[in-house]
Amino acid sequence: MNTDQFLVKSALKHLEKASFTWQTPSNIALVKYWGKSNPQIAKNASISFTLNNCHTITTIDFVKKEISDEAEFNLFFEGKEKEEFKPKIAEFFRRVQEYCPYILEYKMIINSENSFPHSSGIASSASGLSAIAMCLMSLEKELNADVSAEFVNKKASFLARLGSGSASRSIEGPIVVWGKHPKIEGSSNLFGVKFPYKVHPFFENYQDVILLVDKGEKQVSSTIGHNLMMNHPYAEGRFSQANQNLTKMSKILQEGNREEFINLVESEALTLHAMMLTSNPYFILMKPNTLEIINKIWEYRQENESNICFTLDAGANVHVLFPENEKENVLQFIDNQLSSFCDKNQYIMDSIGLGAKNI
Ligand code: DP6
Predict the structure, then answer these.
(1) In this predicted structure, what is the pLDDT of residue 120?
(2) pLDDT in tens, 10-36
(3) Cα 6 from chain centre
(4) Which is the most buried residue in 31, 61, 230, 252, by most CB within 10 A?
(5) Taken in order 218, 219, 224, 226, is the CA torsion positive or negative?
(6) Would you say 315 and 218 are in contact if contact means Cβ atoms under 8 Å apart?
(7) Half-sphere exposure of 240 (CA within 13 A, CB side)
């Protein structure tokens, strides 16, 4: 794999201090990444909608210092120093320092906040790590004027992936593929790429309402879940199915076949959870209300000839996906029939977004 392209080869400018702020989004996978090998290489290609409202805003202040062996940083989350988040970020810096050696020459003060409640069960690693990756790339661009905007995004996705696989899909939008796939031109195991084909207007401004079924800490982290795919009896079948599903999804997104979209998205969500049910040790991340909601969505779709469908990530929350022209009716349905299954009746309204923003 050609990781050489991400090494810093030219001499860098001297810069005493700098500060950058990035807003980067969360994303929701349509074909799921579940199972990886070292170093953070997915076992199958995945594709996601980039979100808009669910995002992280991160500022990093860089102050020049003597070079050290390990990255030095302070981490503030919503204004408070967060020791418990530090090990994951320290590990991220260890993984990227080969590609960003300049971070060892700066003290980094990281200030981060999420637009969604921290304990909402929404994975913040995708938006959180992509925001840090963009700040690092802003510094790299200051230090080396030859770095192009295209390279900034590519390397930011590469770096973000080393922190959290799905974070590689949170740099650009509206639709991103991560993982080498024969039917997706330019795709790579190392970074996410924008879906390279024209998308059918049916998917324009597609909506995602996230129903907050369970805001508690997950019982099994994604990292443990990915590892349980190692000796999983259905692993090989799953990885090849996901790659075939990506071929199908690419065609669906270009041609706008609604029934096929609904069928594939829901099947991917349930297959992801089927992998959890059939791991050893086995685990269940859905809650009774997750199933109540799924059944209500199926009923509503049939009765109203709607294009609504659901997907899940590694948790109990339900993402309700639908085209913009159904917004009014679906929001009414959610208020009347689904919100009562949510923790404190809470949900988040979101839609497809365009990726990282410098602010
Ligand atoms: C179910 O990207 O959170 O959301 O690489 O270990 O950080 P790590 O895992 P992570 O896994 C996400 C899994 C998923 C599916 C997906 O987003 O594709």
Answers:
(1) 67
(2) 889 999 999 999 999 999 999 999 999
(3) 21
(4) 31
(5) negative
(6) yes
(7) 3
Ligand 1 centre to CA of 350 (Å) is 19
Q: Which two tokens stand for residue 210?
A: 């996230």
Domains of the chain, first to last? 18-197 (3.30.230.10), 204-351 (3.30.70.890)
Average pLDDT over residues 230-246: 97
pTM score, two decimals? 0.97
Distance 326 CA to ligand 1 centre (A): 29
Host H or E run for residue 94: helix 86-96
Relative to beta strand 207-211, strand 41-42 is unpaired
β-bridge mates for residue 112, sequence order: 58, 77
CA angle 164, 80, 54 (to 5 degrees): 45
Residue with tokens 């349980």: 228
Hey, is 243 helix, strand or coil?
Answer: helix
How far does residue 105's CA lie from ligand 1's centre (Å)? 31
- Where does ligand 1 bind, in terms of residues with CB under 6 Å? 29, 32-34, 46, 123, 125, 164-166, 222-223, 226, 272, 313-314
